[in-house]
Amino acid sequence: MNKLSHSHYYSIAMWLSLVKVLMQMKAPFSASSSLLRGKGRLSPYLFTLIAFILFVAILYGQDFMCIFDEQLQNYSYSDKLSSTTQKVKQQKVPFAVGKVEEGCDVFSGSWIRDELTRPLYEESECPYIQPQLTCQEHGRPDKDYQHWRWQPHRCDIPKFNASLVLETLRGKRMMFVGDSLNRGQYVSFVCLLHRLISEDEKSMETFDSLTVFTAKEYNATIEFYWAPFLLESNSDNAVIHRISDRIVRKGSINKHGRNWKGVDILVFNTYLWWMTGLKMKVLLGSFDDEVKEIVELSTEDAYRMAMKSMLRWVRLNMDPKKTRVFFTSMSPSHGKSIDWGDEQGGNCYNQTTLIDDPTYWGSDCRRSIMEVIGEVFSKSKVPITFLNITQLSNYRRDAHTSIYKKQWSPLTAEQLANPISYADCVHWCLPGLQDTWNELLFAKLFYP
Ligand SMILES: *[C@@H]1O[C@H](CO)[C@@H](O)[C@H](O)[C@H]1NC(C)=O
Ligand SMILES: *[C@@H]1O[C@H](CO)[C@@H](O)[C@H](O)[C@H]1NC(C)=O
Ligand SMILES: *[C@@H]1O[C@H](CO)[C@@H](O)[C@H](O)[C@H]1NC(C)=O
Ligand SMILES: *[C@@H]1O[C@H](CO)[C@@H](O)[C@H](O)[C@H]1NC(C)=O
Ligand SMILES: *[C@@H]1O[C@H](CO)[C@@H](O)[C@H](O)[C@H]1NC(C)=O
Fold first, then answer.
1. DSSP label at 200?
2. What is the pLDDT of residues 52-104, one digit of tens each?
3. In angstroms, what is the span from residue 171 Cα to ligand 3's centroid?
4. Contact, 442 vs 324, CB < 8 A?
5. Strand residues in 68-187 grouped as ranges (E)
6. Residues facing 174 on adjacent strands
7. Is 424 a catalytic residue?
8. Residues in a beta bridge with 281
């Protein structure tokens, strides 16, 4: 490298570091913005300042070198360049066809009773729903939970257009990555569009951790990948994963991540599996080590570690000009009726009405985990669209599968005598609440 190009390289890199530093100074975090990082705009003042610094830097490039030297060593040049250009040019968001009303937070709203347009499909008409979620088939006596529509306070959610989804996915791959709650959202998504594809043009197959729905005439796949922690863990077996002593391995996202490469639209979630108590076991070496080096972190710190790994993986593997990445927030459980002011001892069993306290939030780690997510995402420039479904789902104590599902093992007489004891207050009946999550995913994908 001759002296001139050397100094030129450093000047550009320096300029980029400065832009980066300045951007960090004014990167507000807003849950309602479609891209957590997409809305920042350079003020004229800032722009002039950067132009001036760039000018000085070109003149005195060599002298500045030492100051920035250390940062430059860790600099991923092309990576930062593309993200910076995107910021300056206010590039179009991939797949966008329109916009929801300015300043409308689609996650802030209320549930409206709707007998006419909900549910969006019938349970019996979607063959892909796993028997753990078919509540009607398993004897649920009421259907009220199917007739609710989410209405944002300040705008409407665009109508789910299955044909638009399929046309967009032509020749592409969409993948949901996470735990059984994400699997529920995945199945709901397939149920929302499978009707448009004739019987012999579609299929769903499972290969270990990966389930693939293929729409042949569109050459499109919609996939689900089981990775309940996103990182490698001792709960990764797609079938046998009911382990109480959970261990997650630090820095291991590529273990699963190599199976997500080349995907055009990714939807992540992870939460429930971290809720094992106050501490989480984190493996520092490898699962093959004879003597395993394990540290215990607080749930929040361990979760933060996973969030950072996910963002880093996205930064290194997803092209923001062509792909989209979503992250679905924590799905709430309704296992303790005292949370919503009922007598102790109850849960979601026999609940047919919504929680009507708009400030209801629930117990467990929801709040502190939400804070971790907010903190990690706000510090990052990686474009991930946040689906903040926690609050709207908090109201839905009525929407869980409860006792109306296929059981893992036969129930004892004692259990049968006390349905509350075996009600599933974690997962959701389909059709139901998770169709709304997908209407919001649809809204954020096409109308960011
Ligand atoms: C650069 O990376 C090395 C290790 O890869 C690390 O020790 C060093 O602190 C990093 N420097 C900066 C400025 O981030
Ligand atoms: C749905 O999408 C299709 C294909 O993109 C489009 O032709 C159609 O007009 C859309 N329908 C509605 C109701 O917006
Ligand atoms: C089908 O889609 C894949 C990407 O998922 C692409 O690589 C392939 O070229 C497509 N095939 C045809 C025939 O369009
Ligand atoms: C279910 O709820 C109804 C009222 O909503 C109540 O009358 C009934 O006793 C409850 N059943 C059980 C088994 O808790
Ligand atoms: C998600 O929405 C809830 C309720 O509207 C809010 O309290 C929380 O801060 C939001 N989370 C993030 C990370 O924006």
1. G
2. 655 555 544 433 433 333 333 333 333 333 333 334 445 689 999 998 888 89
3. 5
4. no
5. 109-113, 148-152, 173-178
6. 222, 265
7. yes
8. 247, 296
